[in-house]
Amino acid sequence: MTALIFRGHPGIGTAVSGRALVAADNFSARYDLDRTAGVFSRPTHALYGESYVGKVLILNTAKGGVATSWMLYDMVTRQMSPLALLLNRANPIMAQAAAFAGLAFSDRFDTDITKAIHTGDQVDVRPQEGLVIVASESSTAAR
Amino acid sequence: MDLTALEKAILQGDHGAPRQWALEQQIAVGEFFDATDFVEVTQVHLCADTEALGPAGVDFVERIAAAPAGRGKVWVPSITDPRGADFKRHADLGQAEAIVALECRLADALAEIGYLLTNTCINYQCIVPPVPGEHLAFGDTGSVIFANSVASARSNFEGGPAALAASLTGRVPRYGYHLDDVRKGTCLFELVEAPNSYSDWGAVGGIIGRQMDSYWDVPVVVSRLAAPTADDLKHLGTAMASYGSTAMFHFVGLTPEAPALPASFTGPPPRAEPIAQADISRFYADFKLTADEVDVVVFAAPQLSLFEMQRLASLIGGRKVHVNTAMLVATAPAIKVMCDRNGITAALEDAGAIVLEGVCFYQMHARELALANGWRTLLTNSAKLVNIIGGYGYEPALATMAQCVDAAVAGRVGQ
Description:
The complex is a heterodimer of chains A (143) and B (415).
Chain A: E1 4-7, E2 9-12, E3 16-22, H1 29-32, E4 33-34, E5 39-40, E6 56-61, H2 68-77, E7 84-89, H3 92-101, E8 104-107, H4 113-116, E9 122-126, E10 131-134, H5 136-142
Parallel strand pairs in A: 3-6, 6-7, 7-8
Antiparallel strand pairs in A: 1-10, 2-8, 3-9, 4-5, 9-10
Helix pairs in contact in A: 2-3
Chain B: H1 5-11, H2 17-32, E1 38-40, E2 44-46, H3 50-65, E3 78-80, H4 97-113, H5 123-126, E4 137-138, H6 141-149, H7 160-169, E5 171-173, E6 187-191, H8 198-210, E7 219-222, H9 230-244, E8 250-251, E9 273-275, H10 277-285, E10 296-304, H11 306-316, E11 326-331, H12 333-341, H13 344-350, E12 354-357, H14 366-373, E13 377-380, H15 383-389, E14 395-398, H16 401-410
Parallel strand pairs in B: 2-3, 2-4, 6-7, 6-9, 7-8, 10-11, 10-13, 11-12, 13-14
Antiparallel strand pairs in B: 1-5
């Protein structure tokens, strides 16, 4: 089977590879995370209780406030951050956060990536090219 | 991006490392959003509390402050959002000394950079209100949506590092709500019944915000019945921004860029989605306590205006807060002074409330506050706060200001 390739807007940060953590839900570090434990702590979030540390976190859009821009930096410094963040549509806070923290980040893909990529998929994120590649063995297993 | 001679000089380090860092950050974000140039701003509002920054963020701000020869100083008037600790009342809340010490370090560093420590999220009510067409770098979602919508000024959400960068360069990348076409309405809501309280207006904001697909949606509100005050619009906008990541709305016949319905949209207006009292009631029902006892009643998010403070004191009316319940009230330092002078602070504190200045509840290390005080159930009239605080381990409920006061006195809801 061939790998799946998704094209988005050129993003921020350097290329990374890792396992995806996906939900058709939205994102705010202040509202949704226990940043000490490294898990989603908002009871109504689709990823409640899930660890995001080291994952390619894939969600729909940004919601909530401005604090994520500081919080991602703190999380990266403590090595308790996601590996990358992919959204269908970003707001300025997420872009500012990624630029400040040096986190791989992209949005505006040619498809709804929360539906196209599945939790556990092995994902290559190439922000400067706006590319996301799901490895062939992963895409076969997941579908 | 097209850069001016000054911007090129900043980028090559002629004005110091902090400004170079700042412009590099701004170019990265500007290119991400396809900005072609920068626009100068007249004021900066910075969200920077230690709950968000952590020690790493404070270290970063201190490095900016330590830059030699004025190279880490602001270039435009710059003010601060709420702090994470009230330096006068933190002991009453059991906040750890380490948190307060970190907050002191951050406040000192911001002052060294040239920030005015206003410590408020309602700067548009109590510091310098923005004016139509003014380009800003505001860093609190509530202040941004009020500035764009009610004042017809122009700002994107500028998160902490981005606002810090703007204060060092005096400009922001020109994209989003700095551009005319982005400011037009994208969806329409009709209030078929008038909201009756601050929390009703917040609920309306929450109902609309939940339906926004992204930051780039601009809801338009029409109503023949409602005549909101500035405080009503504050709660409406704050909740809309919280639930929707929404940076601008229009209220037809009220906000400056929506004198009439056609002017609010680029093309024909879409079909209006009605919002009735039943919808507002359903919104409240999403935030109900499973038990009657209330651990803490919070008035914050946003900080209270002078009129809200006066109303709160009037509602307490000489009664006492229940011994098993805490009642916290957060306002801006500039408003606290007026409350002190006019007997409002005394009325609230005599009742047993804790009046906090320069903070907001969710920015005060709310998880640690819960552990220190044994708080779990929380009642508030802030639709924004109930949206945030569940993730910090609280069980939040939404009620009107009057119901919240009654619950604080009774120690339970529904009495």
